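Homework help board

Subject: predicted structure for assignment chain

Our instructor gave us this sequence and asked us to write out the predicted structure in token form, then describe one feature. I got the tokens but I'm not sure how to describe them. Can anyone check?
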Amino acid sequence: MADRHKTAPDGLWRWLVGGLVAGGIVLGLLVGAYEVGYDRGRASVEREGRAAETTPAPAPREERADLAATGERLFTRYACAGCHSLDGSPGPGPTVKGLAGSRVELDDGTTVTADDAYLAESLTDPDAKVVKGFQKGVMTAAVAGFDLGSKPADVEALVAFMKAQR
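My token output:
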């Protein structure tokens, strides 16, 4: 009987070490699978971005209207109207009415045209070019949770919607 008590702690020790090793292996496999999936997702986003750059032909009018309608839904979902008006009235952010194609004075004194690239950059990196009279950091904080930089289709739709606001 004394022999049985001697081996019990040794058996328990082997069981614990074996469980820890097995758990480490499973964790390693999960992390590896996550990394592979993450890289595949990033690669597909990059391919989609390149595909969009290599197709310069404008979309048919119906598709642009659909894209603007999608942008309107996103404008509501992302609560853009909380800061940006559609009727020209002042707010915490610049109005969207008549913005697309207009000349915009920035807080550094330069002037830019609000073309597609400027509008898209303003959505994905709001502090890159701040409109004169508005505070840096406000929109960045407001849109941080939306991760628009990883959603090129949403950005394209929002830009189409802004271009429709004449």
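Reply (TA_rk): Your tokens look well-formed. For the description, you could write something like this. The chain has five helices and two strands. That's the kind of observation they're looking for.
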